Amino acid sequence: MKKEYEDRADRNEKRLLAAMILIIGLLAFGSRGSDRQGSFGQSNRSTPLRGTVTMAGSTSMESIANALAEGFMNRYPYVMVTVEFTGSSAGIEAALTGSADIGNSSRRLRPEEKAAGAVEYIVALDGIVMITDAENPVRELTKEQLSAIYQGKVRNWREVGGTDRAIVVLGREAGSGTREAFEEYLELEELCDYANELNSTGAVMARVSSTPGAIGYLSWDVLDDMVAVLAIDGVKPTADTIRTGRYGLSRPYVMVTKGGMEEQSEAVKEFFLYMKSGEGEALLKNAGGILVEAVQ
User: Fold this and answer.
1) Using alpha carbons only, how large is the chain's radius of gyration in Å?
2) For position 269, which CATH number holds?
3) Which among 283, 294, 287, 221 has a CA at the least distance from the CA of 74?
4) How high is the pLDDT of residue 18?
5) What pTM value is reported for the model?
6) Burial class of 153 by CB neighbour count within 10 A (0 to 12, 13 to 18, 19+)
7) Which of 85, 132, 129, 124 is nearest to 104 (CA)?
8) What CA–CA distance (Å, rounded) separates 271 from 122?
9) Does 134 share its domain with 196?
């Protein structure tokens, strides 16, 4: 009788031990599972992320900004991300005045903007691509020819190897980061002779595609077969030539905050961490951004 009692006690003790091990295992798994929700970019949140992230700025960054906003909201459903496309300078100003958390810019910050408290983070690279209408037989220009065209010194495609057709010179509006980077490349700041100044990347694409003899510039990631691409000094814009610097007409995509990251809201901090995650980098790449070594 005593032996039977001891055997039953031993079996009960083993069952209790097994149950405790199972409970501990489930708790550990649950803990790891809760970590995964915020694991991107070294995040380790114990509570759901809530809040808002507002962005404003570059129209050239529309694809990557929208892709990141959608991906981030899918990851964190209690955060609302809104984006406005107002131009690079306006985006930087919005960040400095506090009307936006992040200013999107397709140019680097100026000294006076840094002095006012703006901090820049390079999130990707972009090439500025020269385009013409699809019927134009010209497919290459030198940097010198391009400079002469935009100064109004060359006004007919016949002068650069094309047919007898007037050149219609198109560009972006004042305050555009694309325009500033383009004019800086040609060393023609405020010296270009534009037939039309357009206020978005899409407007440049549409006008060039529908205007015989037109030339314009826009972001590499929005190209389609409606227009023809012009090589510069024999180099075509590709992800490889832009990343390595062989194609000289390139610029960074920058996100700007007022003050350092330590001064930002939890939602904004998490948004920047998300961009450095595998998922965030995949979204950047799929949206046409050319990845740099790391988000600075």
Assistant:
1) 27
2) 3.40.190.10
3) 283
4) 43
5) 0.73
6) exposed
7) 85
8) 14
9) yes
CA dihedral sign of residues 151, 152, 153, 156: positive
Helices and strands (DSSP H and E) totals, the chain: 10, 10
Q: From CA 234, how far away is CA 285, in angstroms rounded? A: 26
Read off the tokens for 255.
């996100």
3-state secondary structure of 290: strand
Regions in the chain scoring below 70 on pLDDT: 1-46, 293-296
Q: What is the pLDDT of residue 30?
A: 37
Give me the pLDDT at residue 43, please.
54
Do 62 and 89 fall into the same domain?
yes
Within a domain: residue 85?
Answer: yes
Give a yes or no: residue 35 inside a domain: no
Helix (H, G, I), strand (E, B) or coil at 282: helix
CB-count exposure of residue 31 (10 Å: 0-12, 13-18, 19+): exposed
Range of the domain at 198: 126-250
How many domains in the chain? Answer: 2
Identify the burial level of 113 via C-beta atoms within 10 angstroms of its C-beta, where 0-12 means exposed, 13-18 middle and 19 or more buried. Answer: buried
Answer yes or no: is 18 within a domain. no
**Tokens representing 102?**
């992040």
193 and 94 co-located in one domain: no
Residue 6 lies in a domain: no
Q: Is the same domain home to 135 and 244?
A: yes
| Rounded Cα gap, residues 182 and 60, in angstroms | 13
Query: Tell me, what's the pLDDT at 293?
Result: 58
Query: Are 100 and 145 in a shared domain?
Result: no
Are residues 240 and 147 part of one domain? yes
pLDDT at position 42: 47
